[in-house]
Amino acid sequence: MRADVTARSLGRQALRWETGLALVVLLIVVFGALSSPVFMTSNNWFDAGVSNGEFAIMALPMTLIVISGEIDLSVASTLGMSSSLLGVLWLHHWPMLAIFPVLILLGAVAGLVNGLLVTRFGLPSLAVTIGTLALYRGISTILLGSASVSNFPASYTSISVNPVPHLAIPYNIAIFIVLAIVFGVVLHSTPLGRSIYAMGNNAETALYSGIRVKRIKTWLFVTSGVICAVAGALWTFRLSTSVQGNALGGELNVVAIVLLAGVSIFGGKGSIPGVVLAVLAFALLQSALLLTNFNQEAYGIVVGALLLASVFIPQGGELLSRARGVLRLDTTQRLRRPPAGQPSSPAG
User: Is 326 within a domain?
Assistant: First the structure.
């Protein structure tokens, strides 16, 4: 009974956040349309999707990880490592169809390292993934050094500039939409999704309820690694270049999207529809600011502000709700308290 009530309460909170986020998207669209006549063109929206597609893709597994009570800050470094390996193998004349399975394996191993360190060694995921962030970026540097590879087949590099046939959307956004549907079904309509929420709310209780917490969390990290490896290939083809610095600092963009989506940094709350809206808000805001000649170097201020707001607003709302509850309880107790000089209960 209590679990059902909690689930309904979380559902109402997510719906309120998503409604507010939809209004934010609408305000961004109005701001962009008023700022530049180019904003509402299909080419501009296509470019906004292309520029943020890989971040959007990586935000999906990150969402599940954060809901489960963990975090993965090595996502952009895994992307960079995958991009570097793709360039090295292509330089050694590997066929592209043989490179893709190797990239998938690399991503799986990178995620497995994170997962095992967190679940089997009991290390905090924040510290672990900060360490692997540096480790995987270092491996990227070892693989390519200061070199770059750019002689990829046009059939692959054209993916970023051509829309999906019969659709006006880029390939990376099409992949994001398909994955969002899959992740949405898993998170919101399966026992696995309910287990992920339970782990985020209370891992110890989830363990005693029969949920295989360590195994699920490990597989979440492996999934994140695989998705990041795929994003690495897409990023490489989009820029037509493999360099060790690809997506440097991109983990902040991914975390900003996830937190803007209403996913609690403390776990147990969040939704895939919220992530979709957050991606839309993030991409359109970036596009609007670029069209208004906003200082590109200062764009990090916007990302930082989004991160702070996404953490502060839910916590502020929760504190305000608790304060109201305490005030209501105090008022009720005062009303029940008998006036001075009268007995608290009938004599006899």
Answer: no
CB atoms within 10 A of CB 320: 10
- Is pLDDT of 250 > 80? yes
Q: Is the pTM of this model over 0.85?
A: yes
The CA-atom distances, in angstroms, between 68 and each of 5, 33, 125, 207, 267 are 20, 38, 11, 12, 6
The secondary structure element, H or E, covering residue 329 is helix 299-336
Q: What is the mean pLDDT of the chain?
A: 88
Q: Bridge partners of 100?
A: none
Task: Tell me the chain's radius of gyration from C-alpha atoms.
Answer: 24
Amino acid at 106: L
**Domain of 55, in residue numbers:** 51-249
Does a structural domain hold residue 281? no
- Residue 242: strand pairing partners: 149
How many domains does the chain fold into?
Answer: 1
Q: What distance in Å separates the CA atoms of residue 134 and residue 142, rounded to the nearest whole number?
A: 12
Q: Which two tokens stand for residue 266?
A: 């403390």
Kindly report which listed range (137-141, 164-168, 220-224) carries the lowest average pLDDT score. 164-168
Name the nearest CA neighbour of 134 among 11, 251, 16, 40: 251
173 in any annotated domain: yes
DSSP 342: S
| Higher-scoring residue by pLDDT: 197, 326 | 197
Cα dist. 177→48, 63, 123, 182, 273 in Å? 15, 15, 33, 9, 11
Q: Please give the torsion angle defined by the CA atoms of residues 241, 242, 247 and 249, in that order, rounded to the nearest 10 degrees.
A: -120
Euclidean distance between CA atoms 172 and 291, whole angstroms: 22
Angle at 324 between CA 323 and CA 328, to 5 degrees: 120
321 occurs within a structural domain: no
Rounded distance, CA 266 to CA 178, Å?
Answer: 27
DSSP, collapsed to helix, strand or coil, labels residue 163 as strand
